[in-house]
Amino acid sequence: MNNKRRKYSSEIVDGVEQAPSRAMLRAVGFKEEDFQKPQIGIASTWSMVTPCNMHINQLADAAAEGADISGCKSIIFNTISVSDGISMGTKGMRYSLVSREVIADSIETVVAAQGFDGLLAIGGCDKNMPGCLMAIARLDRPSIFVYGGSIQPGKDRTDIISVFEAVGAHSEGKISDLELFEIESKAIPGPGACGGMYTANTMACAIEGLGLSLPNSSAKEAVSKSKREDCIAAGKTLIHLINKDLTPRKILTKESFENAITVVIALGGSTNAVLHLIAIAHEAKVNLSLDDFTRIGNKVPVLADVKPSGNYLMSELIEVGGITPLMKTLLKEGLLHGEVRTVTGKTLAENLEEVNEYDEDQAIIREFSNPIKKDSHLRILYGNLAPEGAVAKITGKEGTSFQGTARPFDSEEDAMKAIMGGAIQEGDVLIIRYEGPKGGPGMREMLSPTSAITGKGLGDKVAFLTDGRFSGGSHGFVVGHISPEAYLGGPLALVEEGDKISIDANLNEINLDVDTKTLKIRKKNWICPKNKNEGVLGKYAKMVSSASKGAVTS
Predict the structure, then answer these.
(1) CA-wise closest residue to 378 among 519, 268, 226
(2) What is the pLDDT of residues 339-370, one digit of tens each?
(3) 391 near 292, Cβ under 8 Å?
(4) Which domain holds residue 126?
(5) Is residue 33 a part of any domain in this protein?
(6) Which residues are catalytic?
(7) Looking at the domain assignment, is residue 436 inside a domain?
């Protein structure tokens, strides 16, 4: 076997001096001929922590089968997963974004230490996917990503967001204990990631837009036959990537990131995509900033009528053809770079040549002449409240501007007590601060508060600001990632009860109606809260960058 195909593994297994390495590998199933094959690491995020990942061991086996059929030697290894949906609303959620870094670091560690010639990573939950992609970009070895797949709908088209919003409705007396229990019991029927265009499905589609997964890999149900076939095909693809020395940084160009942003906007995807794509670009040595989202968003419409803001689930988008017909339409409209390379070895345009367009009777993806919104729902806001930027998710159905009265809280828990107790009223601007990358630490997602607000019927009557994050399942007039964060003395820390705040998603502005002199006095008297975090949270808080830079630690 040509050593060029075994660029890394040959150092581990070739020669007399590497006899101990070969001895160890024989014990884990290597046969004599395997030492002459390219070694493929299969990074599996399997765990029983969450339904998003409970099936990924089977998908890893299928991917390994594909790699072995093609003449490679596959080696499956694990990394962690943290469930956003389970930890949401608790202090455990602080570990969610941290897990992205742990996943990236652990995959890099194993692949580099073991000398794998290629990498196939399988992710199911929100932070799995950017964590895998960050490692792939860092290592720059022939690699491919496989999405674990979307969950099937619960009975009566329910999903996890149905449960969160039912909690708010229950607190308002709109549904009974029994009705809440029935929704809780039917919403999650089995394996797969949360079923709307929330963060997991958003990132899967973004990665396909980047060209690092096979066409329509993002649009397959977790338990489907087609998802297993997707894994086998991905495993087989790696040998071609190795033969061509087609490494991730040859695929991850500025143009491919622009494609990913375009796909996310057209689908009405999660605000988390902003944070994660900037972080992946950082690892790929591509200059991507918040302003790129505004530039691209000015010309890309929202076309997908999908949850949380719309009506349809990912499984229903899969039924009408997934996202490749949408990408073909975007390409025809001149909104995608068709010349970029992908893991198929073909360009994006070549991948889309044989794709059929959507049937005329489907209602999920709108025509360009009739968009959900004529430009992006992801708004990058600046102003005296967010000098380094903030990320809003405003589809337009909640309006495009908001003026209201500040109701600041220094933790999610305090805010939830006020919401559930009926203390938040129409016209309020709810603020949850000290939840940023360093202050949280970890930028907790605010799905519990936004769902409670929606459940109480205030979704379009209250604005919600935070230096933390919002779940892909959040909707309403929400603005997150406010930078600099409150913990660093950012303007959000200086807001007081009763201050007037204005948000304009047309002008992309967010401002606090308090004069500069008063803010200077408040800043002088401001005292930074003590952060006593130890262990991984303590290390993270010391190392993490601003949300406007992707909250990276490298």
Answers:
(1) 268
(2) 999 999 999 999 999 999 999 999 999 999 99
(3) no
(4) 38-152+190-252
(5) no
(6) 471
(7) yes
